[in-house]
Amino acid sequence: MLYTIPDYYHEFTCVAGKCEDTCCAGWQIVADEASLEKYKNETGTFAERLKESVNWEEGTFKQDKDRRCAFLNQSNLCDMYTALGEESLCRTCKLYPRHIEEFEDVREVTLSVSCPEVARILMNKKEPVHFLTYETDEEEDYEDFDPFLYSKLLDARDVMIDILQDREKKLNLRAVLILAIARDLQECIDEEDIFSMDDVFDYYQAEEGVREVKNALAEVDYYTYSRKMFQNQYQMEHLRADWESYLQKAEKLLYGNANEKIDRKRYVELQQEFHAWMAKEMPEYEIQYEQLLVYFISTYFCGAVYDGEAFAKAQMAVVSTLLIHELLMAQWMKQEKVLDINDVIDTVYRYSRELEHSDSNLNLIQELLQESNE
Ligand code: SF4
């Protein structure tokens, strides 16, 4: 088995009780069968607590009215961990914030930016992210796995990450280049013409393709596009009780509710002012957005081997980074036009929790993006 990890993987340590926003609250933790079996057979002093804290029908841990896990104590430490040790934890708790994508004999392990400590590491990282590999003797055979498509998606992802990390190019050009590549790859996938994918890579790495994308970029109506993508978020399930009102306040600040002509003009002026402020006061912001784009592409793009939706996955990476940017701009407006790195970390991990802690949100964003292409 081949394992890959990002180069910052070993920098992570869980700060447990000192965490600013514990991962043991706000979402439903589903325990695996083997752990449930172990909990059922526990006979020690913790057996009674296990019996009453697990929803045996659903295979989940019960929560209190604030959606805190039934094992989480007031010091934000896990009572099960304290009583029975790390080995007692279910697979979800043992793994988090590690996230594993499985591809036949490859396991891609990343760290989810929905954990504030991971977001802190990634948002402070200045160098381009590299991926490390190691091999073990384990083997696994997958039925219905298309190794040829997978190898082409891997090639595409390498090309996209190279483009995203090309700091000679402006960030919006890099983002739109990977969208153009993914859109054309999608046509190859839909037409079952996988061999033509190499031509797509060559085209967008050459001058002609870059020129075409630059021209398309000049036509983008950022106000309409950003607003539409922003409003898509209301259709998702909200994991945190305050998320919807947070979105509503940000939406009003960003896109206004007077009349479209005035709101659009104001938005364009604010964008210019915000970019100028960021370039002066937080010049590393383009690097942070690059890290986010690489994070989303490296985590999700190759999943297209299972559903064939390469374009939607690249769009999800770009739209997620755009929405984080929009939320940061709203935060900057709210704070009298000031931001710091902690605002960036907060916005990243909060957005990621809403999207990445919910399979239905991950599926829905993909569907909405597919619809927007029709
Ligand atoms: S969110 Fe991250 S740092 Fe916080 S408790 Fe969970 S794993 Fe630890």
UniProtKB/TrEMBL annotation:
Keywords per UniProt: Cell projection, Cilium, Flagellum
Name the record gives this protein: Flagellar biosynthetic protein FliU
Gene it is expressed from: fliU_1
